[in-house]
Structures are given as C-alpha cells and as structure tokens.
C-alpha cells in the first residue's frame, strides 16, 4: 500500500506576493485572467480573483471597472508595501518600545547603519518618503 506524500503547503503570503509581482511587472492594470496568464496559468482564475479581492480589502491594490469585471493595480511598490506592513504590525503593539528594540537587535550591522543614516536624515523639515503616509508620534506636525 503506497501513500502519496501530502501536498506542499505554500508559505503564508506566497500567492499574494506572486500576484503583486505580476502587477508590478505589468505596469498597467490587469484583469484576473491577465494576472493568471502572467503567472503562467498555474493558478485557477477563481483563485487569482480571490487573491486580488483580498489584496484590495487589505488596501494593497486598487481596482477599477473594466467591462463586466475589474482591473487591478498595485497601490505601492514593493518597498512601500513592506514599510506599510511593518508599520501595521508596530501599530498593533501595546509596548512599541520593546517591539522596536527587538527589531533593532536583530538587524545586521549594515542595516543598523542604514537605519541610523535614514533617521539622521529624517530630522527637521525632511519630507517623508513617498508612500510613507502621514507622520505620527513625537516630532510629527500637529
């Protein structure tokens, strides 16, 4: 009696990342069928539509009417989306100081230096990075 191995589970977010990568590469709004084609047809169109709907609900993509359906566009580039996710996770924490301290303690020396450089440049009247959203907290404009 032979058993087939269980199907490999995709890591959380892998499908969303693939769909976003297809949208970023296209540079124009895509329908679910076009995203499916860009991904090589390896996902069912209904799966792609579900992923796009979830990304829309999360605020990661916008959608506009295209015929009887929708065409989807990413709201931010990859770096902007990562920054938004990091901020969202931080906003969920009651003890932001501890969360930030643990994050910083896990940085490589190069990343720590880059963060220091970015923080030094953010002082004064420095404008926030594109897609960074409004600044809140200490030092934010009223």
UniProtKB/TrEMBL annotation:
Xref: Gene3D superfamilies: 6.10.140.850, Winged helix-like DNA-binding domain superfamily/Winged helix DNA-binding domain (1.10.10.10)
Keyword DNA-binding assigned: yes
Molecular function terms from GO: DNA binding
Membrane-spanning intervals of the chain: none
InterPro entries assigned to the protein according to its UniProt record, in alphabetical order: BlaI_family (IPR005650), WH-like_DNA-bd_sf (IPR036388), WH_DNA-bd_sf (IPR036390)
Keywords for this protein: DNA-binding, Transcription, Transcription regulation
Region forming the signal peptide: none
Compositionally biased region (Low complexity): 125-142
Region (Disordered): 119-142
GO biological process entries: negative regulation of DNA-templated transcription
Family: Belongs to the BlaI transcriptional regulatory family.
Protein's name according to its UniProt entry: CopY family transcriptional regulator
Species this chain originates from: Streptomyces lydicus
Source species taxonomy: Bacteria, Bacillati, Actinomycetota, Actinomycetes, Kitasatosporales
């Amino acid at each position: 009696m032979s058993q087939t191995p269980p199907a490999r589970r995709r890591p959380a977010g892998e499908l969303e990342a693939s769909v976003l990568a297809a949208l970023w590469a296209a540079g124009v709004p895509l329908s679910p069928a076009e995203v499916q084609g860009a991904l090589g047809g390896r996902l069912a169109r209904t799966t792609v539509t579900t992923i796009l709907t979830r990304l829309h609900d999360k605020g990661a993509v916008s959608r506009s009417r295209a015929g009887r359906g929708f065409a989807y566009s990413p709201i931010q580039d990859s770096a902007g989306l990562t920054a938004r996710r990091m901020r969202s996770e931080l906003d969920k924490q009651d003890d932001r100081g501890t969360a930030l301290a643990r994050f910083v303690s896990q940085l490589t020396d190069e990343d720590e230096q880059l963060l220091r450089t970015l923080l030094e440049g953010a002082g004064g009247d420095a404008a926030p990075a594109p897609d960074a959203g409004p600044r809140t907290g200490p030092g934010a404009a009223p």
